[in-house]
Amino acid sequence: MPAAKSLKVLVVDDQQTMRGLARQCLKRLGVVDVTLAAAGDQALEAMMAKKFDVVISDLNMPGLSGVELARKIKEHPVFKSIPVFLATSDAYRDQAVEGTVDHFVAKPFSVADMRAAIETHLGALT
Q1: Quick check: 126 and 41 in contact, CB under 8 A?
Q2: Which residues on adjacent β-strands are paired with residue 10?
Q3: How many CB atoms lie within 10 A of CB 86?
Q4: What is the pLDDT of residue 2?
Q5: pTM over 0.90
Q6: If you write DSSP's letter for every residue of 98-118 in order, what string do you get?
Q7: How far, in Å, are 25, 35, 96, 97 from residue 8 at the CA level?
Q8: Cis peptide before 77, with omega less than 30 degrees from 0?
Q9: What is the C-alpha to C-alpha distance for residues 113 and 117, in angstroms, rounded to an integer?
Q10: Residues with Cβ < 8 Å from 22, sequence gap 6 or more?
Q11: pLDDT tens, 31-73?
């Protein structure tokens, strides 16, 4: 059972508003260590500098898409065990490729959905 305040979460979205909403949602769960990236390449750079417990990525972004980012993470020998959540509208749920993306989180974010996704992969939050 991980303590929410000990989790390190990387949020990747090209829209600043969505990054902010994700951060607020995570804060309401007690997650305080949230790193924001505006693109897939920035996310990979951040992952080289810091270990994350979860990556939450938008689907449609310039450069690497959320699925392409997830694929790079899953192919990396150090990062492959990190759960990757694809965050996008429900209409794109089918883009959450099994074996690449670990969980789908619908936008707009809800605290309950975010908690369920995290607890499914890391255990009950305390």
Answers
A1: no
A2: 35, 55
A3: 26
A4: 87
A5: yes
A6: BTTB-EEEESSP-HHHHHHHH
A7: 14, 8, 22, 24
A8: no
A9: 6
A10: 11, 13, 34, 56, 87, 109
A11: 999 999 999 999 999 999 999 999 999 998 999 999 999 999 9
